[in-house]
Amino acid sequence: MNNDELFFKVWRNKYIRFLIIEFKRLFEKNKKKKFQSYKEFKEYNEKEYVLKIDYQSNEILKDGDLSDYPLLRAINLRDPIFTDISSSIFENTFIETIKFPEFKRNSNPPLTDINKLPSTIKSIKRFPYDIKIPIPQSIKKITIPYHNLLTTISMVNLEDFDENDHEEEKHSIKLSPFSNNKTIENLKFDCSSNLNQSILLENTFPKNLKTLDLGGYSKVLNENVLPITLEKLIFSGGYSITLFTNKLLSLINLTHLSLSHQNVLLEPNSIPQNVTYLSISNIGNSVIDKSIIPRNLKTLIIHPTFRDDFKSIPILFETFPNSLQLLKCEGFKLSSIPKRYKNNNNNNSYSFFPNSITSLSIGSEFSDNFKPGFFFPLDQSSSSSSSSSSSSSSSSSSSSSSSSSSSSSSSSSSSCNIKSITFGYHFNKVILPNILPKSLTYLKFGVTYNQPLLKDSIPLGSNLKELIFNDYFNQLVDHTTLPIKTLEILRFGLNYKVPLESIGLDKFESLKILELNSPRYPYDIDLKSIKFSQSFHTLILHNDFKFKSNKILNQNSIKNIIYKK
């Protein structure tokens, strides 16, 4: 008997099926429970199904209370009273994750009874224990809150640091057992921690650390301070940081680097070449070139820091590596991006981006340069004619003027690998023919976009599957402007007020989901008379939408109606 036959043999038993459905309901209901009082916590009558607890009461838990919840795996303790408790309240449980409350300045010193934690504990958030005490081997992930005495983990306080007496100062420090821990793999410091008041020295961190979040640390990162095992390095805040040449090159296993400071300055070769994921919230370099961008990147998220003169930071030619697959550069103006990017497969074709990119998020300031050849390479012989025809008009009349360039650029479009494009918040340009690639499967417009789609704005033969119009959009789109064979998901925003009947929804052969997120949609939706294709199954409406009259749901067309907040 195969698995399918066995399943149906069990499922056809009404009693067993009832039990399965009932237990499923109970587990879903109790996946996470919130308790606002100790009495509510003690008297809850479905304890055996609870997986996570959000305990918001200021009444202390007693030893043995948590063991009444046999499947409990995670608990969030909200009240500051739990910064000074006995860890024995966790004994005889199978809890894996504990989140302690935020520190209050009048709290007691760090806890010392970490040895009372059950061996199932793997993660502790807002670590309340004294880190001079050996940490149990079961714990893999901890978050150090800002109140912890960080000078105990082999750091030098800046006020006492003397560069001329570095070695003597270094030897005077007593290394904590924390740095010798071989099991902690994930370590995070709160952005507001005292870490930024110290200089990191060697042997500061656990030897087998794989993920490290240094919070708002902004001081110099010297060589050999971070463990060679590190794979993921994160700075989740901070004002300003400079990464100096060759300081991080010893991190041969580092693949993920995220810098969220308000101002990031990069020297050439400051980032190891093995990094494949790089995120920079605010880059302050005056010029961005390939000397500061690793050549093996697959994901690059980069935004320029704010400048008082509103001038955009230029990105030089060939800055983006040919390995790049996902690029987000929404903060840059088009004038910053290189005007030509040679296509490796054709020496006579150029585009703005490497041919390797599959997902792209770009900004809003496009001036007059948003024209054919932007996303996919055009042959040089046809690029000039395409540019002139596309720039002659930005209205619907430009559809015919650009049609002559369609055939000349079709081969270049078909070789493009971009599957996802997201436009920035303020993007509001007409999409001319021969701009979007045929390879596109996902397209999302920014909040302020409100332009009509031309007949060939989305190219003939496109593979587009999901199309998202945002809050300002209120234009007619129908089966003549959208791909009727491939489109599966169509979403409209808050301001859409076009009758659904005018779209011709029954013409879309693959449409499955339609979202109308307009709280003040002026038309009634007759679910009985509106025709959909056989593939359609879900209509998503705004939570405030009200049908003007009772309508019979046509089960042959719509199987689900979901109300969205």
Short synopsis of the structure:
Residues 382-415 are annotated as: Disordered. This protein has 565 residues and is an alpha/beta fold. 11% of the residues lie in helices and 20% in strands.
Question: Can you characterise this structure?
Answer:
The chain is α/β, with parallel strands linked by helices and 565 residues long. Among the domains are: 276-464; 468-565. 11% of the residues lie in helices and 20% in strands. It is built from 7 helices and 28 strands. It has helices spanning 3-11, 14-29, 38-43, 166-171, 380-391, 398-402, 406-414, and strands spanning 32-35, 52-55, 74-77, 97-99, 123-125, 141-144, 155-157, 186-189, 198-200, 211-213, 232-235, 240-243, 256-259, 263-266, 277-283, 299-304, 326-329, 341-343, 346-351, 359-362, 378-379, 420-423, 442-444, 466-468, 489-492, 513-516, 538-542, 560-564. It has a 21-stranded parallel sheet. The protein has a 3-stranded antiparallel sheet with strand order 18-19-21. A hairpin with a 2-residue loop joins strand 18 and strand 19. The chain is globular and about 70 Å long. The protein starts with a helix and ends with a strand. Mean pLDDT is 81; it is low at 148-175 and 380-411.
Q: What are the segments in which pLDDT stays under 50 over at least 5 consecutive residues?
A: 148-175, 380-411
For the record, give the distance between the C-alpha atoms at the N and C termini, rounded to a whole number.
Answer: 46 Å
**So how many helices?**
7
Biggest sheet, in brief?
A: 21 strands, parallel
Strand percentage, roughly?
A: 15-25%
Query: How much helical structure, as a percent, in the residues?
Result: 10-25%
Alpha carbon gyration radius: 29 Å
Number of strands: 28
Oligomer: single chain
Could you tell me the mean pLDDT? Answer: 81
Gross morphology: globular
The structure class reads: alpha/beta
Protein name: FNIP repeat-containing protein
Keywords: Repeat
Pfam families: FNIP
InterPro entries: FNIP, STK_FNIP-Repeat
